[in-house]
């Protein structure tokens, strides 16, 4: 079991609430208030989980500046009131930022009994 500090536990909660508000805001036809709250909670929660310095180092690496500008630009556009355009920019930036983690996630999911079977089907496994 991984031991978490109190600030990391708070960060997990904030990140979870952020994801919930983002999901709920999209379900309610891109409600800009819920999306804005979700964005703020997600970014603050991420800073609590991995630390403020590591968060800045992650987002502002030279080879990730394009991804960071799309992600944070999307957050800003949601905050000023254009939720659909902002969410599209955020998703693109999120994909660019975390694309290195996707193979790890797929490898983890392949070890889960039912989902692993589905991912190992011939037309999906490639």
Automatic annotation (TrEMBL):
Keywords: Golgi apparatus, Membrane, Transmembrane, Transmembrane helix. May be involved in fusion of ER-derived transport vesicles with the Golgi complex. Its main location: Golgi. GO terms for cellular component: cytosol; endoplasmic reticulum; Golgi membrane. This is Golgi transport 1Ba. The chain crosses the membrane at residues 12-30, 36-56, 68-85. Pfam families: Got1. Belongs to the GOT1 family. It is a multi-pass membrane protein. It is found in: Golgi apparatus membrane. It comes from the Eukaryota. PANTHER family: CGI-141-RELATED/LIPASE CONTAINING PROTEIN, GOLGI TRANSPORT 1BA. The lineage of its organism: Eukaryota, Metazoa, Chordata, Craniata, Vertebrata. GO terms for biological process: endoplasmic reticulum to Golgi vesicle-mediated transport; retrograde transport, endosome to Golgi.
